[in-house]
Write a structure and sequence with these properties.
single chain, about 900 residues, alpha/beta, Aminopeptidase, Rossmann fold, 8-stranded mixed β-sheet, 7-stranded mixed β-sheet, about 25% strand, flat
């Protein structure tokens, strides 16, 4: 109980918007004393049976004493969380710390009308996160045997639950640290809920256009007309409080007057009216809204504030929001046939789902696909991307049988770790093409909570490569790749046949293909095709068919200069037939066509990708081939290194961070650093600072000869050429002499503090760094020390968790990494030991966001062993990662 006069600090960071099992939303927050009346109302609305199952007895009303106990909390020993819809509490979860301070008793209560929507499991996830933050690692609960729903919540959570039956009550207890199973359960529930929430937007049973207007050409009039003319299969309603007739239908003055439920509301009213309309939608039980109105985050600080309030308003009322400034959405499934967008008609039906953000790029993306005649399954323009995001669309596409390829143009990323996790899974079953300009960098969508990135250049690309996505830079490149994957089988390997009617052009194509990682194994570029269609087409089919039949050919590119008498369509039919017979991809390139009426950068004959530029075609095929290779790799293996004690490090960090607030960082001394790293099986070669020659000699005697001496100046401590290091000192006289010489030399730099260290096995000097980035989370970087990283920026980056393959690729990716494998006649280093070190650092950084920065520099990779010579490690309050062990929408 909170003592009189105490005002516990409200843990605002526990607040979260959540997606429920059926796709609706709710707001989760800590309970406060001001909730007493709402808690009483919640209790009195419950059925007698629900009250009995919660309290083991029936009580029609809570006493004043009980209300105080339930609502006056210290947010440490006594915590309660509520989920609300609007102002109404629909679920409560609480814990009370027991006599053992590491244990707490937990209880839940979900309103009768909202049972079965997954509130119990969400409350459990968030309560467990709050409890871990407060030093609790075990939950207990007492449940009546007939309360099967609550027993199911615990048993399905993924924790190892121990139970026993005594005195008519089932007692349960379980550790609340996230496990592999509990994370998998959370991700599965998150996937189903978010997929359903998007399905409700893209496949509604009824749509209302609010702001539908009689004014020809107005946004509201066009939206309504496009929905009607697109032959939407559900009910369509117009809402306009002024007009008597809109597009041939009688409008309703308010959304509340629409008969029957409304699944989707498309809002096209002036921005100052939007909040009131969203409130009305919430009160009417609308499930999702599309806001096409601009003037929010694109209108400076005041607009940004309006947008944030709008998102809170929508989510609190159970609705997902697309926009603001959205172009709308579309679904070509004949069972839906929805065109709630500014596009004049439904796109060509096909298997490509596309997601975009701003209106300008959304128009460009849609137009590019239309020009290419690439069929689409679903289209969603997120506008300012205030709520519904590319992550949500990927959750939906994974289950959507009509979507076979996923295309996203990302101007910003709200939750990169979650994006990586979803795309890594989705890309195993469907190609994911991501366009993101290098010049845009890594940033949040407008209107989202400000988090700046310190991630090194290249970290985002590394994350995308790990995730298996096909990374491109422009809309046109996205369309180039989409042409192949929507209509052709994936190549089984990089071996390429080049067929054509020009030797010069074929040579250029082959050279370009080799530069992009393809291997040309078959060339026939002297076809005589000017003999008339009846002879040329069979020759082309025979030559291409023979090439595709070879075991050492995985795909073919056919490059043709114009030939009199041969039409593009006739050639396309021949090429596609050859592709279907062989089950291998064929790409067509028609070069030199000057007739503006002939379009070749498009899908031909219902599925043959064609291009006017050989370079464009080769680049697209190479990207698809890399993706196909990624699919052949075994499912990522995340082997846990031996000798790791995560709990010991957690305890150390909690102890050392006590009193560190805000963005403050603590640099660990050498002793603490070695202690922490030792729990991850990482050894650091001991070094001893000294002030006098006698201290240095004593340290060298203890460490063992020969030794090295170094300056403590971070800029010079690794610079043998500038006198910051002296090595192979074999006795005391030599040590004293070298100390004197170093001090005299270093006086010019103003830094003469020194340390002594025993000599390590000679090897290649490397640098390994891991940081906690506010956007990407943990990032691990590797390079070869010296000019390679300092001048040439020759780093490789990966985002944990690191699979065995990620670790191997990381140490091989820098251009200078060839020096680790016996370059120039030198012996190869122990790369296996280096990979083991990288794996341990990656695991440590993934498990401990409190480690803000750790740099191992230098690491000597010798022929037989790997030695860490120096480590710098800083810890701080963990920036709460955007992807954690609790479900929450990014705000």
């Amino acid at each position: 109980m909170v003592k009189p006069g105490d005002v516990p600090e409200y843990p605002a960071h526990w607040e979260a918007d959540v997606v429920l099992r059926d796709g609706g939303t709710g707001h989760l927050r800590p309970m406060t004393a001001a909730d007493a009346d709402a808690v009483q109302a919640f209790h009195m609305a419950q059925s007698q049976n629900s009250i009995y199952l919660r309290f083991f007895t029936y009580k029609s009303k809570l006493t004043a004493k009980e209300l105080r106990r339930f609502t006056e909390l210290d947010y440490r020993d006594r915590v309660a969380l509520v989920i609300t819809r609007g102002a109404e509490i629909i679920g409560i979860g609480r814990y009370d710390r027991l006599d053992d301070p590491t244990e707490a008793e937990v209880a839940f209560n979900v309103s009768d009308a909202n049972q079965g929507r997954g509130l119990g499991s969400i409350l459990l996830e968030h309560l467990a996160a709050a409890a871990r933050e407060n030093g609790i690692d075990k939950f207990t609960a007492e449940v009546l045997p007939e309360n099967r729903k609550m027993l199911q919540v615990f048993s399905d959570a993924g924790y190892e639950v121990h139970r026993h039956f005594e005195d008519g009550v089932v007692s349960l207890e379980f550790q609340i640290d996230p496990t592999e199973k509990s994370r998998a359960v959370m991700e599965s529930r998150e996937h189903r809920a978010e997929a359903r929430s998007v399905a409700g937007l893209l496949a509604p049973a009824s749509v209302a256009v609010i702001g539908a207007s009689r004014a020809w050409g107005s946004v509201g009039q066009q939206l309504l007309e496009h929905i009607v003319e697109g032959r939407f299969t559900g009910a369509v309603h117009a809402v306009n409080h002024d007009a008597l007739e809109v597009s041939g239908m009688m409008p309703h003055a308010r959304i509340a007057e629409v008969p029957g439920p409304v699944d989707l509301a498309v809002i096209a009213v002036p921005y100052d009216q939007v909040p009131a309309v969203v409130d009305q939608c919430g009160a009417a039980g609308v499930k999702g809204i599309v806001v096409v109105t601009a003037g929010f985050a694109d209108d400076g600080a005041r607009g940004l504030a309006r947008q944030r309030a709008l998102v809170r308003q929508a989510r609190a009322n159970g609705m997902r929001l697309v926009g603001p400034a959205s172009l709308g959405l579309a679904n070509t499934d004949p069972a839906v046939s929805l065109n709630a967008s500014m596009a004049p008609g439904l796109p060509l039906r096909g298997g490509l789902g596309i997601f975009s953000q701003s209106a300008a790029l959304g128009v460009s993306l849609y137009a590019s696909m239309s020009r290419r005649e690439i069929g689409l399954s679903t289209v969603l323009s997120a506008g300012n991307r205030a709520d519904v995001s590319g992550n949500d669309l990927m959750q939906f596409w994974e289950d959507d049988p009509h979507t076979t390829v996923c295309g996203l143009y990302l101007e910003s990323i709200g939750n990169p770790r979650k994006f990586s996790r979803i795309s890594r899974r989705l890309a195993r079953s469907k190609p994911v093409i991501v366009a993101k300009s290098d010049t845009m960098g890594l940033r949040l969508p407008p209107g989202h909570a400000v988090r700046t990135t310190q991630a090194p250049a290249g970290a985002l690309d590394a994350m995308l490569r790990q995730s298996g996505v096909i990374r491109v830079n422009t809309i046109e490149e996205l369309a180039d790749v989409a042409q192949i994957v929507v209509g052709q089988p994936l190549p089984r390997g990089p071996r390429l046949a080049v067929v054509g009617n020009s030797l010069a052009l074929g040579t250029v194509v082959a050279d370009s293909a080799e530069q992009l990682g393809l291997t040309v194994t078959s060339m026939d570029n002297a076809l005589a095709l000017d003999t008339g269609q009846s002879r040329a087409l069979p020759l082309l089919a025979h030559t291409l068919g023979e090439a595709l039949a070879r075991d050492d050919v995985d795909s073919a590119i056919v490059t043709l200069l114009p030939v009199t008498g041969l039409t593009i369509d006739a050639i396309a039919g021949t090429l596609r037939a050859c592709s279907e017979t062989a089950g291998k991809p064929v790409i067509a390139v028609f070069t030199g066509i000057v007739d503006a009426g002939i379009q070749v950068n498009r899908q031909l004959d219902g599925g043959l990708p064609s291009y006017s530029s050989p370079g464009t075609a080769i680049a697209a095929l190479a990207a698809v081939t890399r993706y196909a290779h990624w699919l052949t790799l075994e499912k990522p293996s995340f082997d846990r290194p031996a000798g790791v004690d995560t709990d010991a490090v957690t305890a150390l960090l909690e102890q050392w961070l006590e009193g560190i607030e805000g963005d403050g960082l603590l640099s660990l001394d050498a002793g603490r650093t070695r202690e922490l790293l030792g729990h991850y099986g990482i050894e650091v070669l001991e070094s001893v600072p000294f002030h006098s020659d006698d201290e240095a000699v004593a340290a060298a005697e203890r460490l063992g000869w020969p030794v090295a001496i170094k300056t403590l100046d971070p800029a010079l401590r690794h610079r043998l050429d500038l006198g910051g290091v002296r090595i192979n000192i074999e006795n005391a006289p030599s040590l004293r002499r070298n100390i004197g010489q170093m001090r005299k030399l270093l006086e010019q730099y103003g830094h003469v503090e020194l340390e002594v260290q025993s000599m390590a096995e000679v090897g290649q000097s490397c640098t390994l760094r891991a940081i906690e980035d506010p956007l990407l989370g943990p990032v691990v970087s590797f390079g070869l020390s010296g000019d390679a990283v300092n001048l040439l920026d020759d780093w490789a980056h990966r985002v944990p968790p690191l699979s065995v393959g990620d670790t191997a690729e990381l140490v091989r990716s820098p251009r200078a990494a060839v020096k680790l494998f016996g370059y120039g006649g030198l012996p190869a280093g122990n790369v296996a030991a280096l990979e083991d070190l990288v794996a341990r650092v990656g695991l440590m950084k993934d498990e401990h966001p409190e480690i803000a920065w750790v740099e191992f520099n230098p690491i000597l990779v010798g022929p037989s062993r790997v030695t860490v010579l120096a480590v710098e490690l800083r810890i701080g309050n963990p920036a709460r990662r955007t992807d954690s062990a609790r479900r929450a929408l990014v705000s």
